[in-house]
Amino acid sequence: RGTLYVVATPIGNLGDLTPRAAEVLRRVRAVAAEDTRRTLQLFAHLGAPAPQLLALPAFDERGRLGPVLARLAAGEEVALCTDAGTPGVSDPGQQLVAAAWEAGARVVPLPGPCAAVTALVASGLPSDRFFVQGFLPRKGGGRAEALALLRQLPATLVIYEAGNRTPETLSDLAAALGDRPAAVARELTKLHEELARGTLRELAERFAAGARGEVTLVVAGAAQGTPAEEPAPEPLEDALRRRMA
Ligand code: SAM
Questions:
Q1: Which of 56, 79, 160, 175 supports an S-S bond with 32, CB 3.0-4.6 Å?
Q2: Does ligand 1 lie within 6 Å of residue 11's CB atom?
Q3: Where does the Tetrapyrrole methylase domain lie (predicted)?
Q4: CB of 161 shorter than 6 A to ligand 1
Q5: Rounded distance from Cα 215 to ligand 1 centre (Å)
Q6: Is there an atom of ligand 1 within 6 Å of 16 CB?
Q7: β-pairing, 156-162 with 214-219?
Q8: Does the beta carbon of 10 sit less than 6 angstroms from any atom of ligand 1?
């Protein structure tokens, strides 16, 4: 039976590729890759010839499963890599892993970098219980709904965001959740890594001009036992409407 290796790759610093990941990538004859060009760069770094690359883009993961499953059915070893970090975490991969299970293949995870966990542990906020939101919906009802759900959760919140949208999202979080303690983790593991702590409003002000590069936000959870009573400083809909006006 075939084997699917779920391989975490660096989120910036190539030194974070684990020896085990390197060994598996050198050995497999096929890699399912979110973006084949990015994965080619990783093989260039390894100084290894690239194996057969099978595209598994986020926008059409289901439609591209066929060739990967065919190799697993033939008893081959296939590695799954996304552009950065752990496959399946706000990245393609989950559908392939589910299909691999269904097809009777062996699934072997190779742990490694993940921006959510890296930002969480650097934030100093409680890490005993946390919720990875991934990206918030960009606007409208979906965004308001997601924020309303986050407001209730008695767990530290981890949110992915693009640098230029960071100030807007920090302000929306402050309006919806209250001015909670938070952290901004920017360009983790890279040359210009920056970690900043403060309340959501302080951070919104500090990054008012935008934050360059990749950003992960960490926000304190609802105080345990009081989420329902904790008043938002202004009704969420008003805040969102004000920003969209
Ligand atoms: N699967 C990835 C992981 O395990 O970290 C996450 C992929 S998601 C498409 C990309 C988002 O992760 C970015 O928009 C940013 O929010 C966060 N991210 C990735 N690399 C980062 C870094 N070096 N520093 C801070 N955040 C990062």
A1: 56
A2: yes
A3: 3-204
A4: yes
A5: 7
A6: no
A7: antiparallel
A8: no
Mean pLDDT of each 10-residue bin along the chain, 245 residues long: 98 98 98 98 96 97 97 98 98 98 98 98 98 96 97 98 96 98 98 98 96 96 65 63 60
> pTM to 2 decimals?
0.92
Task: Show contacts of 63-69: CB within 8 Å, 24+ apart.
Answer: 64/32, 65/95, 65/96, 65/99, 68/4, 68/30, 68/32, 68/96, 69/99, 69/100, 69/103
DSSP assigned state of 129:
S
The finding on whether 114 has its CB within 6 A of some atom of ligand 1 is: yes
Nearest atom in ligand 1 to the alpha carbon of residue 8 is: 4
CA 156 – CA 202 distance, rounded (Å): 18
